[in-house]
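dumping these here so i dont lose them again. two proteins, back to back, each one seq then structure tokens. dont judge the mess
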Amino acid sequence: MNSRAIRVRIVCEGQTEVNFVETCLEPHLRQHQVWVTPSLIRAPSGRHRGGRVNVKRLVDHIVHEYDSTDRISTLVDFYGFQDRNERSREELEQAIRDELSERLGKKYDPRFILPYVQMHEFEGLLFTDVDKFHWVMDAWDESKRQALLTIRNSFNNPEEINCSSQTAPSKRLEAIFGAAYSKTEHGPLIAEDIGLPAIRAQCPQFDAWVSKLEAWGNESDR
């Protein structure tokens, strides 16, 4: 075990992901000597403002944070990439690495950067246990539960829920709950109630990412 904890900055797409890192990931990773803090991606103006993600904007933010922490990772949605085009999740993550290598030159160390793109959106993770949507109290009833179950049972795992820009996880939740569902309020509450072990058991890509973050706690200090 390290003599000190590894400091990890997680660059987040929006406030929902920031809240999730603070309430769910941070307490868990602290047990592995990994201290994580979220950082909301910067707007071109320099202000911290989420959304409108593309490779350049993400790389700009990582470069800005690079010297202020030990390690850097990301938590951004695949669906939200404005310059996704036909690229896969793996291709987007590699594009981030390639541009970082070019921007940082000799300072770039691939061991300390872990780009992670969540399939297809953060909201997909919440389908791990649809009963936890009871937090959307103003709209929760059995018909909503059955609608959520039908979606979940149509896919092998929550990370596969998508099909089109009209049927991404967040769009499906909007169709079921309307304005009663608040992404920033209910998303982190639902995730915390589900718990990381259950989410990791059903979401293999997310689980692999968390495992890599845990492993940083067992490596030598930067």
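---- next one ----
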Amino acid sequence: MESKLNGMRSAREDAWAKPVDKFKIENAPAGSNPGTVNGLRLTGPIRGFGQMWQKTYTARLGTKAKPVDVIRAWKENFPKFWPKGNTFYPSLAGIKPGEIGLITTSGPGNVPMISTGVMVIYADDESFSFMTPEGHPFAGMVTFSASDETGETVAQAQVLIRPNDPIYEISFRVGIGHKMEDDTWHHTLHSLAAHFGVQTTVEQKVVLVDPRVQWKEAKNIWHNAGMRTAIHTMTTPLRWVRGLLKR
């Protein structure tokens, strides 16, 4: 019995990412923009600026797949399940503890609007979790899981977030930020269900955990990924010319 418990403890420890101070990206996937993430710190909901929200999205997948099958498929196809205009670039190792995934949200004409990323802080056979860096629209964590409820598999995405700076907080206050977040996970869960040949309804539960804003974190605006992405896009010709001159 003791050896079995030790084995379970080791498995849990292996599922957690090792502590890191800053994002360090090597061999970034083609098409991604690591410049708005590299060197930034992880930032959980405690360090965010705006109101803290917990949102839980669930979808019933019936009996066609077990929870471990759902999580395996979710990890392997994570980029495919996102809505159009959002691109997730996983690392070569995939969704594993300590790996970094880069994200680009594009607007009309496929112009990048926000380039950011997430770190996989936990991953096992039944769940995996992301944490955001500075500059991301929200400071927080996202956890994806699947469980058995009376013989039926239920998939869930749960976020615990604060908008990272005053600009993002305004977008949430007027509903834009909330809509983008809701649309992303509703689409993801519908896509996950369709992968297993299931039509489902996504249920959503929203809890305002903390209605206060943290004015001391207003300085987070310095790392705003939207502004940094815009600057990166506008200076692309300069980098192209610099590259020619170096050659």
